[in-house]
Amino acid sequence: MRVFVAGGTGVLGRASIRALVEAGHRVRSSARGKEKTALVRTLGAEPADVDLFDPAALRRAIAGSDAVLRLTTKFGPMLKLRDPRTWTETMRLRTAGARVLVGGDGGRRGGVRP
Hints:
Largest sheet: 4 strands, parallel
Low-confidence stretches: none
Helix content: 40-55%
Strand content: 5-15%
Number of domains: 1
Mean pLDDT: 85
CATH architecture: 3-Layer(aba) Sandwich
Structural class: alpha/beta
Number of helices: 4
CATH superfamily: NAD(P)-binding Rossmann-like Domain
Radius of gyration: 14 Å
């Protein structure tokens, strides 16, 4: 199975990519920047530098996938969890980002069946 993981560089995402690759799945994951791209490669997945709020770019990144996992968060260091901006970004990913990813703009138009 071909799986696209949004949020593959987080704690849950890294563990999920490892498990999927070990189970024999082909995995592609969002990864922004050189360090996260390298991380995704070391986990055995193909990195996709994609803006999760850009429907067209997301459709291209998802194309050919059989399944999509949304594991996105935007938490910084634990010391910043009291900073409202930390939660603002995470909530934006969980609402607007989720609509683009799994709604008509992303996953379904990218060929992933509900």
